[in-house]
Amino acid sequence: MSGKNVAEHQTPRLNVGELAYDTSKGALGVVMDTGTDAGDGRYALRPPQGGVEWSALCAEVRPATVADQLRPALAEMNTRSSGGSAWG
Question: What's the superkingdom here (predicted)?
Fold first, then answer.
């Protein structure tokens, strides 16, 4: 055994209303349900501006970083500055 605490390797538990990042989808979402009632190990997430909710495995969801939060706005600004085309 390495002597490390098992809790060090666990993903932090998120609460309803927190901003999260789904690594499998590459998307930012607000936690709508933690799945604790169902015990299925999934979060229900919804885009911050509203939209269709999706389900993600807890192991693939982490708290959103500042970079995660800025990435969508930066991508939109880059698209606008290039004349509306993603490839210029």
Answer: Bacteria
State the Rg of the chain over Cα. 16
Overall domain count for the chain: 1
Domain annotation covers residue 3: no
In a domain, 72, yes or no: yes
Q: How far is CA 4 from CA 1, 9, 10, 31, 58, in A?
A: 8, 9, 12, 29, 22
Domain extent, residue 51, equals 12-81
Share of the chain above pLDDT 90, in %: 52
CATH of the domain at 77: 2.30.30.140
pLDDT at 84: 63
Report d(CA 33, CA 49) in Å as an integer: 17
